[in-house]
């Protein structure tokens, strides 16, 4: 609307009106969900204190009135004014876990997520009653979702869509589209564009597949690897990304992942974020006892060992070996932890666990 406002006086007037509402509601674009919820709680407390100072009794009805008397009653007419029955309203709620405590996911957070979804359902019904189309999506990290779902009694009520990256062809498409957009070439094949900028082989492996082997099947890690390799090539004045640039990129990314996964494990469980540093110098294949020995070296409490192992399997930090000697990680089972657990139960204590190649490079460095 700001762009239209440069040439359309009515659009500019609408933008000014909307901005005025946003200013009055004190909506801060940089504020995360936790900070906004905290602001609402502070407002509620101030109103409760004001009522108490005036000698008035506080009731649940007054609590509802305090919440709804501000933004909701003013913003809905504004939305209706600037939309019509053909307008589709889409509400995206992301980074909900930003600002959550580092000692795990408390039950109150699970309840807040459930109440948020219920509130958005109510908003949808309300807009539908006023002939407006409203859709909403709440984004949650999959690990957060799995840990929250057990705390949500009506977990089957809301529709869910899971985005898993288990197919190498999909990862190739992510990079292909980015390369096409960067060089504005929609005609050339992936191979032609890739080999224009990257060496064909790395350690006798297709260079792109070499990156995929070390990205834990996550697009952002694959992008990181490619960016590291490009940076290495530029800094070394190479005409294109060479083999040593790719090898060093994998090492750089692996060292980064040691902290990244440590923080993710900490955020959902409260386990020490330095958990992976206990595996420095280990071989690629480990027994359960050796894994627990690494936990002990990091002084992880014994009552956290089983949970630590489960989380490392869930994140794909470690995988398992199957009967033919090959390794399988959680992504090979479409992130179905029950299926992976079944494999472990079939083998029992003789199971050999495999450190993911994307992390073992940094652990062995």
In a nutshell, what does this entry contain?
The chain is α+β, with helices and mostly antiparallel strands. The chain has helices at residues 2-5, 9-24, 33-53, 60-68, 71-81, 107-129, 142-149, 168-183, 190-197, 207-213, 219-235, 243-269, 288-297, 305-315, 337-347, 357-364; strands at residues 88-93, 133-138, 201-202, 205-206, 285-286, 318-321, 327-328, 353-355.
Question: Any descriptors?
Answer:
single chain; 365 residues; alpha+beta; 2 domains; 4-stranded antiparallel β-sheet; two-stranded parallel ribbon; 16 helices; 8 strands; globular
Describe the structure.
This protein has 16 helices and eight strands. It is α+β, with helices and mostly antiparallel strands and 365 residues long. The protein has two domains: 87-163, no CATH class; 168-364, no CATH class. It has a four-stranded antiparallel β-sheet. α11 (219-235) runs antiparallel to α12. The model has no long low-confidence stretch (mean pLDDT 84).
Low-confidence stretches: none
What gross morphology would you assign?
Answer: globular
Radius of gyration: 26 Å
SSE string, helices as H and strands as E: HHHHHEHEHHHEEHHHEHHEEHEH
Q: How many separate domains make up the residues?
A: 2
Q: Report the structural category.
A: alpha+beta
Question: What percentage of residues falls in helices of 4 or more residues?
Answer: 55-70%
Tell me the total number of β-strands.
8
The largest sheet is: 4 strands, antiparallel
Tell me the strand order in the biggest sheet.
Answer: 5-8-6-7
What's the overall average pLDDT, rounded? 84
Distance between the termini: 52 Å
Number of distinct helices = 16
Beta fraction: 5-15%
